[in-house]
Specification:
By secondary structure, this protein is of the alpha/beta class. The chain has helices at 11-22, 34-40, 51-57, 68-76, 102-113, 128-133, 144-157, 170-198, 203-210, 218-228, 238-254, 260-277; strands spanning 4-7, 27-30, 46-47, 60-63, 93-96, 118-121, 124-125, 136-142, 158-163. The protein has 2 domains: 4-168, NAD(P)-binding Rossmann-like Domain (Rossmann fold); 173-288, N-(1-d-carboxylethyl)-l-norvaline Dehydrogenase, domain 2. Strands 1, 2, 3, 4, 5, 6, 7, 8 and 9 form a 9-stranded mixed β-sheet that branches. Helix 8 packs across helix 10, helix 8 (170-198) packs across helix 11 and helix 9 packs antiparallel against helix 10 (218-228). The longest helix has 29 residues, at 170-198. It is globular. The protein starts with a strand and ends in a 22-residue tail after the last helix.
Length: 299
C-alpha cells in the first residue's frame, strides 16, 4: 500500500494534510513545530520527530514549505540534521509545492534522479480555505512514473491538477506567471482603494460597487475585504510577494523580457516590507500610500 507523508503544516500544508486524511489516506507528517504535528495526529495519522524518519516511512513525500532554501533543507539537511532524501526508498516520489525559480526545479529533478528518486514539480494556488477543502489548484510537471505513484494523492489535495509537461520546470513557470498576476492585482487593488479613501469615498460603498462592476478582480474582492476589516493577519504575507515577484523578474530578466507592471508592483511590496509590514497580510501594501485614513474595522 502506497504511503504518503507531508512536510510543513502551515496555512496550506495543514489543509492539504487534512484533505489527504479525509480521502482515506493514513498521513505521515513532519513540522519543525513538534506540537503542531502532534495536534494533527489526534484525529489520525503519524507525526515524525525527524525528516529522515518520515522519508524512510513514505513512498510519496509532499513538501509544503516557503521557498527553495527550505526545500533544500527538507531534502538534504541543514548542516546539523539530515533531510529526507537520503532515507527515501529508491523509486519514491518527492512532490515539491513551493514557488521557486523554474531553473532550480529543473536542477532538483536531476539531483533526485541521481539518487534514484522521482520528482513532481507541483506548485499550488488557491489559499488556505481551498487547501482545507481539497479545492485548490496544482500546476504540475513530472515523468509518467512519478505521476503513477503520486496522482491519487494529488487528486485528493486539489480539485484541479494540471499536467503541464513530462519534466520539471513547466509547473513552476506557470505558477510564476500566476504570481505575476496575483501580485499586480493586489497592488492595483490597494492603489484603487487608497485613491478612493483619499477622495473621501466611503470604503464599504466603494468595495460594494467595485465587486459588482467590471473593475473587480478576485484579489480586489478578497484582499480589500481584509482592509475593510482592518485585519492584516498574514494569510499570505507582504514578503511572499517580495520573493515571488522577485522570481518573476529574474525569470524575465534572463530572456531580456520587459515586465513594467511587475517591476512596479515589486517595488510597492518592497516599500511595504521595509516600512515594517513584511510579516503582515499582503493587503498591507495599501499602507504605503500617504495621506489616507484606513478603515479601523468593527470595534
Amino acid at each position: 500500500m502506497t504511503t504518503v507523508g507531508l512536510i510543513g503544516l502551515g496555512a496550506m500544508g495543514s489543509g492539504m494534510a487534512a484533505s489527504l486524511r479525509r480521502a482515506g489516506h493514513s498521513v505521515q507528517v513532519f513540522d519543525v513545530r513538534r506540537e503542531v504535528a502532534e495536534a494533527f495526529t489526534h484525529a489520525g495519522g503519524t507525526a515524525h520527530d525527524t525528516l529522515a524518519s518520515l522519508g524512510a516511512a513514505c513512498d510519496v513525500v509532499v513538501s509544503v514549505v516557503v521557498n527553495a532554501a527550505q526545500t533544500e533543507a527538507v531534502l538534504f539537511g541543514d548542516g546539523t540534521t539530515p533531510g529526507c532524501a537520503a532515507s527515501m526508498k529508491p523509486g519514491s516520489v518527492f512532490v515539491m509545492c513551493s514557488t521557486v525559480d523554474p531553473n532550480w526545479s529543473v536542477a532538483l529533478e536531476a539531483r533526485l534522479e541521481a539518487m534514484s528518486l522521482r520528482y513532481v514539480d507541483a506548485p499550488i494556488s488557491g489559499g488556505a480555505a481551498k487547501a482545507a477543502s481539497g479545492q485548490m489548484t496544482m500546476m504540475t510537471a513530472g515523468k509518467p512514473e512519478a505521476y503513477a505513484l503520486a496522482e491519487p494523492f494529488l487528486n485528493a489535495m486539489a480539485a484541479k491538477v494540471y499536467k503541464l509537461g513530462d519534466s520539471a520546470g513547466a509547473g513552476s513557470k506557470v505558477k510564476i506567471i500566476n504570481q505575476l498576476l496575483a501580485g499586480v492585482h493586489i497592488a492595483a487593488a490597494a492603489e484603487a482603494m487608497a485613491l478612493g479613501l483619499r477622495e473621501g469615498v466611503d470604503a464599504a460603498a466603494l468595495y460594494e460597487v467595485i465587486t459588482n462592476s467590471a473593475g473587480n478582480s478576485w484579489m480586489f474582492e478578497n484582499r480589500m475585504a481584509h482592509v475593510l476589516a482592518a485585519d492584516y493577519t498574514p494569510l499570505s504575507a507582504v514578503d511572499i510577494f517580495v520573493k515571488d515577484l522577485g522570481i518573476v523578474l529574474d525569470m524575465a530578466r534572463a530572456s531580456k523580457f520587459p515586465l513594467p507592471l511587475s517591476s512596479t508592483a515589486h517595488q510597492m511590496f518592497m516599500q511595504a516590507s521595509t516600512a515594517g509590514f513584511a510579516k503582515e497580510d499582503d493587503s498591507a501594501v495599501i499602507k504605503i500610500f500617504p495621506g489616507i485614513e484606513l478603515p479601523k474595522g468593527k470595534a
